[in-house]
TrEMBL record:
Organism: Hymenobacter volaticus
The Fibronectin type-III domain, residue ranges: 497-585
Keyword Signal: yes
Family classification: Belongs to the glycosyl hydrolase 43 family.
Name of the protein described by the UniProt record: Family 43 glycosylhydrolase
Domain F5/8 type C: 338-492
Taxonomic lineage: Bacteria, Pseudomonadati, Bacteroidota, Cytophagia, Cytophagales
Signal peptide: 1-19
InterPro entries: FA58C, FN3_dom, FN3_sf, Galactose-bd-like_sf, Glyco_hydro_43, Glyco_hydro_beta-prop_sf, Glycosyl_Hydrlase_43, Ig-like_fold
PANTHER family, alphabetized: BETA-XYLOSIDASE, ENDO-ARABINASE
Length: 585
């Protein structure tokens, strides 16, 4: 029997912003993937190839001046004053009658008046919508029990006129759906409506697969999220598959909350198919305490299971024509944290380059084929593993010359982990040494007494250091072997920046105008390239980082639109100037 708790919500529809939180002392930057204490997959058959950390489908909501982060199967949630330091609160939203593993899978999180509400994905009609006015104290009770719409990947949206809507859908057959919901009873009003589906024959980025080839499945559409901006409704969605580098968020726009919707020409708006950690799909768009827009989304690992994933945070916004964008350029390099109102069309990238891509390494031991150079190859999917998790195992990287180091990111890999589900009271301990000559060493960072779980540890040094060698020494692992998918050193090299790229051509034929072959002449002293692409010369909003090659198959275009391209070369010393924009019709 449906049981409704009568709620009294404050009359205001907007969230009251309290005192502005600031970043931690000395901490100006962050680096993707976000360094939160990710839980391990709780699903045994997802861990048959190895137990591993996993989450996805995130939502950040600003509530009473604090940021709250919910994501799939974490058995709780995080809060932060500054988008950098996240504190976990343990909480299960399942009850004994819920015979499922999925505890807040792809949750809907929304604010009504002074109350925050949460609802997890289900195909049944036996989940409550939970409510709280004191999240830090972990105080929750059902707002409605049970909610009468079984919705997978749900999103609740409160319009400025006070009307409440629900959007949902996760399928490679069915579209997204939308429906008005009563604010008083949480009962559906009217019938559900079809919002829209995918059209991969038109939009190349929507094709299924790592290579966008639709080889064995049709593409998936999921992860609805609604944002209203200047009277327009932006219904966002993830596609074509969460396990692929091209996982992205698209958007359609309407002047009504239930449509009809029309695709924004700039699509996908959140896109990161290259670099160390890839993917920018199924997330949410939110404002910080200064009014800046951000987009939070799912990043891909997909080694031990298709659903091995992490979280990424991108500066976002709406341009003067109302085009929604997310800025993923150098998206897994250090970026500045917000300190006030910002123009996110201007880069938040700190300008610190990667100093040790494919540079020489030395290690204490190696397990099987998990080779040392996998720790510096700029792929989160490959990793070096020591033979043990013992104290004293180490990884040493040679920058090749004296460089100025500003920050280090340590990305741990899950080799022979023993955990299922969220684990309390686990931690990493390490020391980071540096040396001018590889003989005399000084401690740069000492975390040998650390008691926190830091799977993607990011250290911004209080003062930059001139050095050549860095050594990461294990003190304690929470589980498994000492394994590193990326020891990434950021700063300023001592040489010349690359020359501009030469010989750049884009081959787009009539056979399939969703796709193009991009080619260019290798730049001698470059290790990577940024390809900037967009729907007009002044809207090159998407960026693809390519390492170690001088061509790229770009298969993400709308077959009916012209596209515009430019490219820049990258090395440890900086970035070349961009070439003149190339137009391809």
């Amino acid at each position: 029997m449906l049981r409704i708790l009568l709620l009294f919500f404050a009359a205001t529809l907007s969230l009251t912003v309290q005192a502005q939180p600031t970043s931690s002392p000395g901490q100006r930057t962050y680096c993707n993937p976000l360094n939160v204490d990710y839980g391990y997959t709780p699903i045994p058959n997802f861990a048959e190839a190895g137990k591993h950390r996993a989450t996805a489908d995130p939502v950040i909501t600003l509530y009473k001046g604090e940021y709250y982060l919910f994501s799939t199967n974490q058995w709780g949630y995080w809060h932060s004053p500054d988008l950098y330091n996240w504190k976990f609160i343990s909480r299960s939203f399942l009850r004994p009658e819920h015979k499922v593993y999925d505890d807040l899978c792809a949750p809907a999180v929304f604010v009504l008046g002074d109350t925050l509400l949460v609802y997890g994905s289900t195909q049944e009609k036996n989940f409550p919508i939970w409510m709280s006015t004191n999240l830090k104290a972990n105080e929750w009770k059902p707002a409605v029990d049970p909610f009468q719409i079984g919705a997978w990947d749900p999103d609740f949206f409160l319009d400025t006129d006070g009307k409440l809507y629900l959007y949902w859908g996760s399928s490679n057959v069915y579209p997204l759906y939308g429906q008005q919901i009563s604010r008083k009873t949480f009962q559906p009003i009217g019938e559900r409506k079809e919002m829209f589906g995918l059209n991969d024959k038109q939009f190349g980025w929507q094709r299924f697969g790592e290579y966008l080839d639709n080889t064995f499945l049709d593409p998936f559409m999921e992860g609805a999220w609604m944002t209203k901006y200047k009277g327009q409704y932006y219904l966002q969605y993830g596609a074509p598959g969460t396990e692929f580098s091209g996982y992205a968020d698209g958007v359609q726009v309407s002047d009504k909350p239930l449509g009809p919707f029309k695709p924004q020409p700039h699509n996908p708006f959140a896109y990161k198919p290259g670099g160390f950690a890839r993917g920018a799909g199924h997330g949410n768009t939110f404002q910080d305490t200064y009014g800046n827009w951000w987009h939070l989304s799912t990043m891909v690992v997909s080694v031990k299971n298709n659903f091995e994933r992490r979280l990424g945070l991108w500066p976002a916004g709406f341009d003067k024509e109302g085009v929604l964008y997310a800025n993923t350029t150098f998206g897994d390099y250090p970026h500045y944290l917000p300190t006030g109102p910002e123009d996110h069309l201007k880069s938040r990238f700190a300008g610190w380059m990667l100093l040790n891509y494919q540079k020489p390494v030395q290690v204490s031991s190696t397990l099987g084929g998990y080779l040392p150079n996998y720790a510096v190859d700029e792929s989160i999917r490959t990793y070096w593993s020591a033979a043990t998790g013992n104290k004293g195992e180490y990884l040493q990287t040679d920058l090749g010359d004296l460089n100025t180091v500003h920050a280090i990111q340590i990305n741990y890999a899950d080799q022979d982990a023993q955990f299922l589900g969220k684990q309390p009271n686990i931690y990493h301990q390490y020391r980071l040494w540096h040396s001018l000559d590889g003989k005399k060493w000084k401690v740069l960072v000492d975390k040998s007494a650390n008691k926190t779980d830091v799977p993607h540890e990011y250290i911004e040094l209080p003062e930059p250091v001139r050095t050549r060698y860095l050594k990461l020494e294990n003190v304690h692992m929470p589980t498994g072997k000492f394994a590193i998918s990326g020891l990434r050193v950021f700063g300023k090299g001592s040489g010349a920046t690359p020359e501009p790229v030469k010989g750049f051509v884009v081959l787009r034929t009539e056979k399939d105008k969703r796709s193009a072959w991009l080619k260019w002449t290798p730049t001698d002293n470059a290790y990577a390239y940024n390809i900037h692409v967009g729907i007009s010369p002044d809207k090159l909003y998407n960026c693809i980082m390519v390492h170690g090659q001088n061509d790229y198959y770009f298969k993400g275009m709308d077959k009916d639109l012209p596209y515009y391209f430019t490219i820049e070369a990258i090395n440890e010393n900086g970035i070349s100037s961009r070439i003149p924009v190339v137009t391809v019709k």
